Amino acid sequence: RPILRGDYRPPAWLVDHVDLELELAAESTRVLAHLDVRRNPEALDREPLRLSGVELKTRRVLVDGQPLADRQRTMDGESMVIGGVPDVARITTEVEIHPERNTALEGLYAAGSSLLTQCEAEGFRKITWFPDRPDVMATFRVRLIADRARYPLLLSNGNQLESGELEDGRHYAVWEDPFPKPSYLFAVVAADLAVLEDHFTTRSGRQVALKVYSEPVNLHRLDHAMASLKRAMAWDEERWGLEYDLDVYHIIATHDFNMGAMENKSLNIFNARYVLADPDTATDADYEAVEAVIGHEYFHNWTGNRVTCRDWFQLTLKEGLTVFRDQEFTADLRSRAVKRIADVATLMARQFPEDAGPMAHSVRPERYIEINNFYTATVYEKGAEVVRMYQTLLGREGFRRGLDLYFERHDGQAVTCDDFLAAMADANDRDLTQFARWYAQVGTPRLEMTTDYDHERGHYILRFRQSLSAHPDNEQRGPLMVPVKIGFLGPDNQPLPVTRVGEDGEGAETRLLVLTNVDAEFRFDQLPPDALPSVLRDFSAPVRLDYDWSDEQLARLAGHDPDPFSRWQAMRRLAERVLTAAIEAGARLPDAVELLIAAWKAVLEDETLDPALAAELLSLPSEAELAQQRDPVDVDCIHESRKALLMRLSQVLEPVLRARYLACRDGAAWSDSPEAVGRRALSNLILNLMLDGQCEAADGLAVDHYESADNMTDRMGALKALVHGRVGAADRALRGFEDRYRDDPLVMDKWFAVQASVAGADAVRRIEALMAHPAFSLKNPNKVRALLGTFGLHNPTGFHAADGSGYALMGRVIRELDGINPQVAARLATVFNRWQAYGAERAGRMRGELEAIADKKGLSPDVEEIVKAALRAG
Ligand code: ARG
Ligand code: ZN
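== Aminopeptidase N ==
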């Protein structure tokens, strides 16, 4: 059943050109396709032509204009196998599809009053018969026909060649994309939308028309998206020398979308949440996310489209690289320190659990049943860390040389992660053979560090031992090449120059060590025996580092490490120690809490510190993250321990918190300057803390904060504080919010999410009531994520309610959703992943739900793959 990476074979047939005609209507769309096919000279043997098709009503199939006799075509699963095709031929098919019935949102589907497509990974086969694999690249010419009144806008990839009127109120448009592309980048839009237009002149003088579309009511919310697009285009030229290559670039916002966005050539289709933004409806985090995702999809034009993936096992080739690029984009435009911390925090919160879960896979997976299940944090975010390590090892210039060579060699091709590695190695004359293991290893590698001092010779010694997790795919896997950035603090907490034994002169304060063996030893002279090591600065490799720093040492690093990431990491470790000790003592805080309080106080009182960075330093690990590290997981004790810590911190520090809060609230009108964004982040964090701590008069502050808010960041921050603090005024605020934003689906997502995360066993009843709300729909992925995703992932005491009601609700939803949208159902099903760690009673109930899902008749392969893996792990 699973598809194996090792089974790759070059396509037996190529398609040079595709001519499509779509007669578009929501109930039924007719698709006429002409494929210019020829035998692939590189094919391993002479196989018949195979075309993939799913849920197509086939009207006719012709070869070189001749109808096909029935015996010439046979079905093999999703494939139509056609025998006797001449080595060069034109295949014609005509099919009928039903966009309105397509609730899976894959292929051509109806979204509101629009028709649009999502083809990655394997959606094109739901539109027409085709060898639907990324190493088959064709030029496309697309003729669209539709009712003019209903669909005045007709778009596809590339440039528009002509358009005009037809009889019966219909019209047509013809589009041509000169760049050969895989079918997954094909897109069509038929809609009635408003547009914001602008233009960009590339470095070499090309005038590019930029068009961002949304429903007319949201036209005023497109400016930030447009500005972000222009910044992305300029940044890609400046940082990487990459220019846009067509005369037009379209972005379409839709409310019905399975993922974040899609990089279809010149016709990006976006989840509206990553396009629409104005201060009244979008938070600062939304603003940053819009900019990042617009950048991400734009950057795919080179890393993904011009150079694409040979097969879906190589997904990280484009996704890891493009995430790395969008991370750098944000870092260059905003605060590099805050961005790095936020990215690593996300990796630890989302990817580390994948590594430890039943679906653990390498960044380049070895096998899959449903490829949609592998659009994961591992392929994306850990993949980005792998790309970042090349840059760490080769330096910025070396990395750039490697990327230049990659484009020089592979523009217009469908390639592999090995090709990427080869370009990096060849451009820098480096042997990266060992580095390739990062593509194959599964799980989070562990690095154990010990320190020693050779008094005789005056050497300070760092020793490392690396290990991989126990996983069949890791057997006989040798050691990884691990870049480790280090530094030392002196007794006065000042950074020390680092000199390795044998080196002359004074070393820099941060040095790169490259580990290549299981055991590695590094000696330094000119360091005092009590130098304090700071290790894995900038998170230079995606590993778990173990070293037994004392609590005091962590507090020193948290206060003084010159590397902001390391400060954050030390603060996190210290908080985790305090919380772990508390959890083990039945929610009683250990003495080490005093060190944490002092570290927090220093951060709060440091007026020179960027408030956005302060907010990162003051964020505690979530209950879900604490649960990850425990077996068995005591859901309630984790909750109580975290609450006890929040109470203590906020009560002891109340005057400091209040002062910093007031200093952040300067009363100036809304602005999106980094400075203002940072102040809002910190003031909202403090507000929530004071409510968690039940500080005196905090309720009043929250009500004030809510009522005076002139932007969504403050409104949401205060609403969360009121609702989670169970303040009396919360219900009125929720009702007022609902009245105001009833018709705004994106804002209502926030309203659902803030309620879905309120802790406690009564959460289940609340979720059920919210599911009956008129604004909720299981058919809308954003709503499912906002309400049920939040409940399952961010509300442990609710989801794991002892009577099993949270599990039963989730099980029911997954079974129903499976029949509507398998991709979204499969994502949701991962909430059961670590079921066996929750104690016998809860484990039994979760297992029961998993089995009930597995037993459902007609279960999708998407959900089946996830659920069976979870059950096997028991
Ligand atoms: N390539 C898109 C992006 O990362 C994601 C599309 C994934 N879609 C899917 N159905 N798996 O920008
Ligand atoms: Zn992407």
